[in-house]
Each structure stands twice: as structure tokens, then as C-alpha cells.
Design goal:
Elements: H1 3-10, E1 16-17, H2 23-44, H3 50-68, E2 69-70, H4 81-99, H5 101-106, H6 116-137, H7 139-154, H8 169-177, H9 186-207, H10 210-222, H11 228-244, H12 247-265, H13 269-281, H14 293-301, H15 305-311, H16 313-334, H17 347-354, H18 358-369, H19 374-388, H20 399-433, H21 435-447, H22 451-465, H23 471-481, H24 483-488, H25 493-506, H26 515-524, H27 528-538, H28 540-551, H29 561-583, H30 592-606, H31 610-639
């Protein structure tokens, strides 16, 4: 293949990330530390306009990402000459806007002209976002951005509903860079505040040794149960996922311990990877922290973060109960007992060695409950972890550790920030072209105005857009594109956006491209598609619950207390039935008819309706009794007599 051909094909490929070596490494560290100091200042005592701090944030992040992300997978370990030139141009362009930010904040959009230097700086920054989107997230999202940009410039040639007025290059660059609708819009603003600080909180938490403490505590309570090790994986991945907010990072962190141990215990590599991926992906919907996506939702909807967290409690519990019970039934089927006693730590010894890790979480929740900004609450949490790390000598966070933590935070948040900047381009195109209303018309045309069909199409859009993208970025896109259409159908604001959050989270495991499934596949040494299918099966409740709570708000703890309690009880039984149906095992092996009946009964139980729930409960009870009697009969036959009473236990 010729050099030109190789260059052309590289445009359609994702690059690869690597920490630079030599002097470039120290440059990266220096930029990362300055940015981290700025973020801590901004989150604690700083006061800047959102546009201003977004410009400062991207001015650092874009050059850093260019220095840590090669243009192709076959590029050299260190940045190329072009990478250095591009990084310097990007840094200078961002610095130019920072220096002149007051004039940009006071100018009247569409009236005050932009200079050639203004336009050149804007063009460089926009080009950097597009190139880094390709390098970090692949050509799929980049193609979507290019289609959007092409539509902005050529859409005036389209007749009818989907046409729009002509857009000049100056008007386009103005919208993308010099307003709060483009790359410096609300998605990047969230990345520059809540996301950065909560990711930092997770990194501090891990550096202080809390990860091992979480695993040990989960082992104490879950380890002795049937399939104890897999249940430990479910609980530890869920807790850490809520803190980290990144399914793939959670899998890489907790999965490196959980997956190999599950494989040794007798679980297949695919099942072990599926358990880890499904549990990690649910962290985004698990209160109290819910990663950073809940803060994005609060920004978009104006609903208080605390209200969002409270509304998701029951749904998150049902999600993890579903995974837990499938693990339980699979373990019964394979006759996999709990962990060995020697592998289970002593509770009091574990508690005494790490009970103080609970306090930073408590301080974080207290601060948010008191009405402090999420950024300030995260700063309090980080400060608390730093202080409590000195309780034990082995967990001290020294200056060397601080450098490692902050460089790791900046390195890990770079792709997320690029994705949010890319989402800003989509939002800018939507504003320029009036695409939101046209997209709504398109959905209505496809679904005929049916709420159920519109929800199904919306879920599919979340999953398609989520191929390879971070969960917060998926939510930003669908919140701008899909939410208005669902709202026009008369649906409420909270359930609509939570519906999108759920499917944005589940896109991390949904085949064919689920980032969490691919990460788990690397650790489990298994096929990523098979792991994605297994994880989706384990997380099936997560695919069902959003449709249910759109129609029945009691699942979101809204409405009458009695109805909420009734809903919680029936939904738990429904999840229990669904788990048995999917695993084909209750107390004994289930036949196909029993599995289908349990599946239907489980789905019916999740939707609160007294008559339907009563019929479904009877069906579940009949199958349970039949399964129990079948085991009794088998035990008696095995014992050689029909008269001898046999005690039957069903361990949880």
C-alpha cells in the first residue's frame, strides 16, 4: 500500500493512547498538575463564568490529549513532530481566547464581527476536537460530527421540512467556539467541574486503599453464600462503579481481581466477564454518587441532584438484585459453593483497619444534602480521603502519590472531555439548524406518535450512539436529540431523562460494541461479543425497568407511600422470577414452558397492578412449589425410599 493510501486509511482508524516518555512526560505532568490545581481552586473557592472556565479547561486538555494519543495504532511511542506542532497551535489558540475572554463574553453574537485571528483560533480548536474525537473514540462518532457539519453548510439546499437557512463559515465558527452552545457548552462545563472532581475522588479513594477494603467487606457479607465470589464481584463492582462513574475503568480496576478469581472458582470466562461488566455498568445508576451522569442530568433538567439520586434508589436495587439472583441460580445449577473460609477476612479486623473509609462518603453526601455545589462537595470528599489516608502508614498519600493521582485523573478524563466537546458540536449544529424539532418530527414519523414505539426507538438510539462512547457523552447527545421528542408526547421530565440515563449506561455492555464488555474480555481472555451478550442477559432488568417507570412513577418513588411499598415488593418478586427464567433454574432445572411462564409472570410483577400481580404471583408460586416437590422426589429416589423424610434447604 502506498504512503498516501496508508495516510488515507488511517483517517478511518482509532489511534492509541500512551503516556509519553522522556521530556514530553514531564511536560505532560506539568500541564496536568497546573490543570488539577486550577480545578481544585475552581471547585472550592474559585468564581468564574462557565464559558471562562470551560475555555481554560479545554486549553489544557486538548494539548494534553494530543501528547498522549497517537494518530494511529502503528505510530511511534512518543508524539510525532506534527503532534507537537498541533499541540502548540491548540495551546496558543486556547490561550488567545483566555486572554481575550472578557471581550468575547460581552460581545453580541451575530452583531459584533470576529477578526481573522479570532476565526483562526476557533478553526484550530474545532479541528483539534474533530481529530481527537477520531483518535480517542473512533471514526463512528467522527463521521456523525462530519455529517452534522455537512448538514449545517449544505442543509439550505434540501427542500421541505429538513432544509434550513444558509450558514456561513463565520457564523458556524461563532456558534461552535464563541457561544455557550458549542465546544465550550454545558457538556464540557460539567466535565470541567463535576466530572473531573468526582473522578479525582475515585482515584484518591483507590490510592488510599479503599478498593481493597470494599472488596474485603463485600467478601465478609457475601463470600460464604452460594456462588460467594461472584456475588462479591457484583457488590464490589457496583459500589466502586458508583464512585468512578466509568464502566470500563471500573472493570479494569475491580475486574482485574474479580474475573480471574471467578474463573478459578469454576465460572466460565464469558460468565465471569459478563458479571463484572454488568455490575460495573450499573454503577452509573447507583446512588449516592452515580458517577458524573447524574450531574449532567441535573444541569439539563434543573432537577436537584438529591432528587435524582432518591428517584433511582429502587430501580438500582432491582437492577443489582437481578444480577445477584442470576448469579445465585447459576451457582446452584453448577453446585458452586461459597468462598473458602481461609479466603474470607475477619469482619472486625477488616472493619477496624478501614472503617474510616466510610467517612469521606458520609461527608460527600452530607455536603450535597446541605445544598453545597457538587464540586465543593467533591472537594470536601477529596480532602477527607487525603486526611484519613494518614491513619495507616501504608496508605499515606505522599507528594509523589499526589503527582501520580492527578496525572492519572487528567489522563483518564481526556477522552471523556473530548467526547463532551464533540457533543457540544452536535448541540451547536442542532441550534444552528433547528434540528431538534426536525428530529422530533422524524421520530413521530417512524413511530406514528406511539409512546411505546417512541421509547423503543429512543432506547435503540442510545445504544447505537453509545458504541464506544463514555456514558455521560451518550446521555448528552440523546438529551439534546431525543428528550424533546419524548416530552412532546406528554411524558414527565424526570422519567424521560432517567430513561435515557439507563440506556446510556447499558450501552457500555450492549453488543456489538460495549466498552465495558471489551475491557472485561481482555481480562477474561474471552470473546467480547459473547461477554456483551452474557452481560446484557444478566442486566436484563435494566432494559425492562425504564419502560416500566415511564408508565408507573411509583418505581421512581413518586406518589403515594403505600403504592411505593407495594411496587417495591411486587417488583422484587418479579425480578426473582425473571432471574430464574433466564438461568433456567429455580430449586431445580426448569423446562421451557416453566421458563416462559416465569418470564411473563416476572414482567407482569414489575408493573404494579393488583389484579395482574395477583395472577402472576399465583403462577410463580405454582412453579416454585412444583420445582420444590421435584427436588424432594429426586432426593427420596436417590435415598432409595419414598417414605424417608428428607430435610430440604435452599441456601441464598
Amino acid at each position: 500500500m502506498s504512503g498516501k493510501a496508508k495516510w488515507f486509511t488511517s483517517l478511518f482508524q482509532e489511534g492509541y493512547r500512551a503516556v509519553p516518555q522522556g521530556i514530553t512526560y514531564y511536560l505532560f505532568v506539568g500541564l496536568a498538575l497546573v490543570l488539577s490545581a486550577f480545578e481544585l481552586w475552581l471547585g472550592s473557592v474559585g468564581n468564574m463564568s462557565p464559558y471562562y472556565y470551560s475555555v481554560v479547561f479545554l486549553t489544557f486538555i486538548l494539548p494534553i490529549t494530543l501528547l498522549t494519543t497517537r494518530s494511529t495504532k502503528k505510530a511511534s511511542a512518543n508524539p510525532s513532530v506534527m503532534d507537537y506542532i498541533f499541540a502548540v497551535l491548540t495551546l496558543l489558540s486556547g490561550a488567545y481566547i483566555v486572554i481575550n475572554v472578557k471581550s468575547f463574553l460581552t460581545r453580541i453574537s451575530g452583531v459584533d464581527p470576529l477578526s481573522n485571528i479570532d476565526l483562526a483560533a476557533a478553526f484550530v480548536l474545532l479541528a483539534a476536537v474533530l481529530e481527537l474525537t477520531r483518535r480517542t473514540l473512533g471514526f463512528g462518532l467522527t463521521a456523525l460530527l462530519l455529517i452534522g457539519i455537512g448538514y449545517a453548510f449544505l442543509g439550505h439546499l434540501i427542500p421541505g421540512t429538513f432544509g434550513h437557512r444558509s450558514v456561513t463559515l463565520e457564523r458556524f465558527l461563532e456558534e461552535m467556539v464563541f457561544t455557550a452552545n458549542g465546544i465550550f457548552g454545558s457538556p464540557v462545563q460539567v466535565a470541567a467541574t463535576y466530572a473531573f472532581l468526582f473522578i479525582a475522588f475515585g482515584h484518591f479513594f483507590q490510592a488510599a486503599g479503599a478498593g481493597q477494603f470494599i472488596f474485603d467487606i463485600c467478601a465478609v457479607f457475601m463470600g460464604r453464600r452460594v456462588g460467594g465470589l461472584a456475588k462479591v464481584a457484583v457488590s464490589s463492582a457496583g459500589v466502586f462503579g458508583s464512585i468512578s462513574g466509568s464502566p470500563s475503568a471500573d472493570v479494569a480496576t475491580t475486574g482485574s481481581i474479580n474475573i480471574p478469581m471467578m474463573k478459578k472458582r469454576g465460572y466460565s470466562p464469558v460468565f465471569a466477564g459478563g458479571v463484572e461488566a454488568a455490575a460495573a455498568s450499573g454503577g452509573t445508576i447507583l446512588p449516592p454518587i452515580m458517577g458524573s451522569v447524574a450531574f449532567l442530568m441535573a444541569e439539563f433538567t434543573g432537577i436537584a441532584y438529591v432528587d435524582i439520586a432518591i428517584a433511582t434508589i429502587l430501580c438500582a436495587v432491582l437492577y443489582y438484585v437481578g444480577i445477584y439472583m442470576q448469579v445465585h441460580f447459576r451457582s446452584l445449577k453448577l453446585n458452586l459453593v461459597g468462598m473458602d473460609d481461609k479466603d474470607i477476612p475477619d469482619f472486625w479486623k477488616t472493619f477496624k483497619s478501614g472503617f474510616y473509609y466510610v467517612f469521606p462518603i458520609i461527608i460527600l453526601i452530607w455536603a450535597m444534602h446541605k445544598g453545597f455545589t457538587p464540586s465543593l462537595a467533591a472537594c470536601y470528599g477529596i480532602a477527607a480521603i487525603f486526611i484519613f489516608s494518614f491513619v495507616r502508614r501504608s496508605t499515606w498519600i505522599t507528594p509523589k502519590h499526589l503527582v501520580e493521582i492527578f496525572t492519572s485523573v487528567v489522563y483518564s478524563i481526556a477522552p471523556l472531555t473530548v467526547a463532551t466537546a464533540a457533543a457540544g458540536i452536535i448541540i451547536g449544529v442542532i441550534n444552528l439548524t433547528g434540528m431538534a424539532g426536525k428530529f422530533t418530527s422524524l421520530i413521530f414519523t417512524l413511530t406514528g406518535g406511539s409512546i411505546l414505539l417512541s421509547l423503543i426507538v429512543s432506547a435503540m438510539i442510545c445504544i447505537v450512539l453509545g458504541m464506544g462512547m463514555p456514558t455521560p457523552s451518550v446521555y448528552v447527545l440523546v438529551a439534546a436529540l431525543v428528550a424533546p421528542a419524548l416530552m412532546q408526547l406528554g411524558l414527565e421530565l424526570l422519567p424521560v431523562h432517567l430513561f435515557l440515563v439507563f440506556f446510556a449506561a447499558l450501552s457500555a455492555i450492549t453488543p456489538p460494541v460495549g466498552v465495558a464488555a471489551f475491557t472485561a474480555a481482555g481480562i477474561a481472555n474471552a470473546n467480547p461479543l459473547s461477554i456483551g451478550i452474557q452481560a446484557s442477559k444478566l442486566a436484563f432488568v435494566g432494559f425492562v425497568i425504564p419502560f416500566m417507570f415511564v408508565y408507573q412513577p411509583s418505581l421512581l418513588l413518586q406518589g403515594d407511600v403505600g403504592m411505593i411499598i407495594f411496587t417495591a415488593i411486587t417488583a422484587l418478586f418479579g425480578v426473582y422470577a425473571l432471574a430464574a427464567a433466564f438461568e433456567g433454574y429455580l430449586i431445580s432445572q426448569l423446562n421451557l414452558v416453566e421458563r416462559i411462564l416465569l418470564l411473563i409472570s416476572g414482567l407482569t410483577m414489575i408493573y404494579p397492578d393488583i389484579t395482574l400481580n395477583a395472577i402472576a404471583a399465583i403462577g410463580i408460586a405454582v412453579i416454585y412449589i412444583r420445582s420444590r416437590n421435584q427436588v424432594k422426589h429426586q432426593v427420596k429416589v436417590k435415598a432409595g425410599t419414598e417414605e424417608q423424610p428428607v430435610a430440604l434447604t435452599h441456601s441464598r
